[in-house]
Amino acid sequence: MNNSTVGEVLMPLPEVIAWCIAYVTVDLLIVIGNALTLVVFHTNKRLLRMRANYFLVNLAVADLLVGIIAVPFFTYYLGLSSQRGNEVWGRFPYLVAKVLDIFIGCASIFTLTIIAIERVFSVCFPHVHRGIGRKAYYYMIGSVWILSFLMAVLRFLFMNKLIEFKVFFYFLIVAFSASLIIICISYPVIGIRMKFRFANVDHHRKTNDHDRRLALMLFIVTTVFIFTWLPFHVLNFVSFFCVSCRRIPNELVYIIKLLHYINSCVNPIIYSYLVPEFRRTVLKIFARKNSPRRQYATTLT
């Protein structure tokens, strides 16, 4: 997760401006969408009765941090690089931003992994799952941030030459690969199990429909995550093991970086499309904001 793979040839200023506009646009969508998501969960307490939604709140927090910290730093140094060259990527403030980027990115990855594990447990062992209290969910969320912090510490140690890059890189690859394998195995298991359950149980139709919709939403969230993050990790993997492949064009790096940032702005769209209660709450929030204006207009007529 670094910019050492970026080529030495600098892009013309108009191209840099175009890239900065793209990143700023994505950043605005990230901040607005995830801030709205947190407002929705805060406004509608019924959404939090489903304990799996705790993880969606955690995911929204991680994505919001991407929009507040990671994207602005990257965009600023992208613009600065057009004037001062690629040496700006090695400056201390951006190195700190890269540590935070690792921290936030791993939080998203580990949250989606926990979501997949929790859904498997819910579908395959429903009676045991119902007995799990809220504290267990808080502990799982805490473990996500602790593991993410440890990955960020490894990045910091590598930056200060206290460990070799390959040590940090292997930890990163193992963490991402393990998460990806767990996620890719979990959803086929969920699909097979739910298909069997729906074929044999009809009297809990409402609960089954809710579980089916939630499973579909989480599957789409995870699929989008893999699609947007996998190229970034493949790029780092290839550049690490193939020395001759490290001369990568700026445009490819910026596209892949933008792609994994886009992941942080699509989740609110998915929620609005697949969760009716979420969509209704969003409409109520905007209706509430507009109602005083409508009432004032009525009194004038």
What does the model show?
The chain is built from nine helices and no strands. It has helices at residues 13-43, 53-84, 92-124, 126-130, 134-159, 165-200, 205-241, 250-274, 276-300. Helix 2 (53-84) packs antiparallel against helix 8 and helix 5 (134-159) packs antiparallel against helix 6. The longest helix has 37 residues, at 205-241. The protein is globular.
User: Could you give a short account of the major beta sheet?
Assistant: none
Count of runs of 4 or more consecutive helical residues: 9
The average pLDDT value, as a whole number, equals: 82
Task: Kindly name the structural category.
Answer: mainly alpha
In the predicted model, the low-confidence regions spanning at least 5 consecutive residues are 1-8, 295-301
Q: End-to-end distance, in Å?
A: 60 Å
Instruction: Specify the overall morphology.
Output: globular
What's the Cα radius of gyration? Answer: 22 Å
Order of helices and strands: HHHHHHHHH
Indicate the percent of residues in helices.
over 70%
Query: In percent terms, what proportion of residues is strand?
Result: under 5%
Number of strands: 0
